[in-house]
Design brief:
25% strand; globular; two-stranded antiparallel ribbon; 25% helix; 251 residues
Length: 251
């Protein structure tokens, strides 16, 4: 596979977005590690804060999560997830086959640290595959134990949005190579009001909810790229890819 050079922001749905490219943003700022979550196999997942923007960044694998409301998903399209749960910590009946969502660690100290850094349930994030350049938006909607979250879990729809492989028969797929970088926007949990999200769910319009997440995420990404143009997000990403998240220690 050819080495990817990040020259701009592009959503996985194939719509080019008019953001300032990474290459156009000139200066950099250091990262501060705020969380290190370790599972029983000593696999780690670190969360960092970019000190100039207060964006929260992490690098991980991408494992499939199918928890949520799947009552409207035909059985032929469902993956075989024997550990699936109906309930999400956020309390919303999200369809994992229609909405992009991810989880944060369930350790209370970690949740408090993330909350103090503006990361809560329904916070909006931007995720991209550093191998392919494909990207998309989602919301934080659940918590997971260290043995799961340290590998980076995303809803089925997010995995498909990033065009990662899915084996429906075994319930496996995604990617296990620390190729996924997630940028979480602080204090973004109220950008889409809870009542609006619930209305989308009640009216059976979860695809439209994902469109709304995409729209609001695109606005946030554009704002951070333009307004905070003293921050070199490309440099931040390079730091995440190299020194701060060595694959030999995190895969």
């Amino acid at each position: 596979m050819k080495k990817m050079i990040i020259v701009g922001m592009m959503m996985a749905v194939g719509v080019s977005t008019p953001f300032v490219s990474y290459a156009q943003i000139k200066t950099s700022s250091p990262l501060t590690q705020i969380i290190e979550s370790v599972n029983s196999n000593s696999i780690r997942m670190r969360y960092f804060r970019d000190n100039a923007t207060h964006l929260i960044l992490t690098r991980s694998d991408a494992d499939i999560l199918s928890d949520g409301d799947i009552t409207k998903v035909p059985e032929t399209k469902r993956i075989n997830d024997v550990n699936r749960q109906n309930q999400l910590f956020c309390g919303l009946k999200l369809n994992p086959y229609a909405v992009n969502y991810s989880v944060i660690p369930d350790e209370m100290s970690h949740r408090v640290t993330l909350k103090n850094n503006g990361i809560k349930m329904r916070s909006i994030y931007y995720v991209f595959d550093i191998k392919t350049g494909l990207s998309s938006f989602g919301i934080i909607a659940d918590i997971g134990p260290g043995g799961q979250i340290t590998n980076g879990e995303f809803s089925v729809h997010q995995i498909l949005d990033l065009k990662l492989p899915v084996d429906k028969a075994t319930g496996t797929g995604g990617r296990d190579a620390n190729d996924i970088i997630t940028i979480i926007f602080p204090n973004s949990d109220e950008i889409i009001p809870l009542n609006d999200i619930q209305r989308f769910i009640d009216e059976g319009l979860q695809g439209a909810l994902q469109n709304r997440i995409n729209e609001e995420g695109a606005k946030l990404l554009k704002t951070y790229s333009a307004k905070l143009n003293a921050t070199n997000l490309n440099k931040v990403v390079e730091n995440i890819k190299s020194v701060t998240m060595s694959v030999k220690h995190y895969d």
